[in-house]
Write a structure and sequence with these properties.
By secondary structure, this protein is mainly alpha-helical. The chain has a single domain (3-83), classed as lambda repressor-like DNA-binding domains (434 Repressor (Amino-terminal Domain), Orthogonal Bundle), CATH 1.10.260. Helix content is 55%, strand content 0%. It is built from 6 helices and no strands.
Length: 99
């Protein structure tokens, strides 16, 4: 599996849907640390997680894996800044963070 494509696609889907690792992990019913390992390529996600991510965001598993499709409607600079950030901080209103 090409983890870089997966990492980019999931991060962008999270950004577009105002999700955090915490919120997405809750939706997927998995631990935040486990989701982080999948996103950052330290572990390959099982098919169930790929299915759940694709269902959550309304895209195909092939799209999540970077096999086809693109993000035509996204501001390329915003995506580049997001992906180039060494540590991605995503506000979490549940913990009192503001956007």
């Amino acid at each position: 599996m090409n983890n870089k494509n997966f990492e980019k696609r999931v991060k962008i889907l999270m950004l577009l849907n105002d999700d955090t690792i915490t919120s997405l992990a809750k939706k997927l019913c998995i631990d935040e640390a486990t989701l982080g390992k999948y996103i950052h390529g330290r572990r390959n996600p099982p098919i169930r997680i790929l299915e759940d991510i694709s269902d959550e965001y309304g895209v195909s598993i092939d799209f999540v894996l970077g096999r086809h499709g693109h993000f035509a409607a996204i501001d390329e600079l915003q995506v580049k800044d997001f992906l180039d950030a060494p540590t991605v901080y995503m506000p979490n209103p549940e913990r009192g963070d503001s956007k």
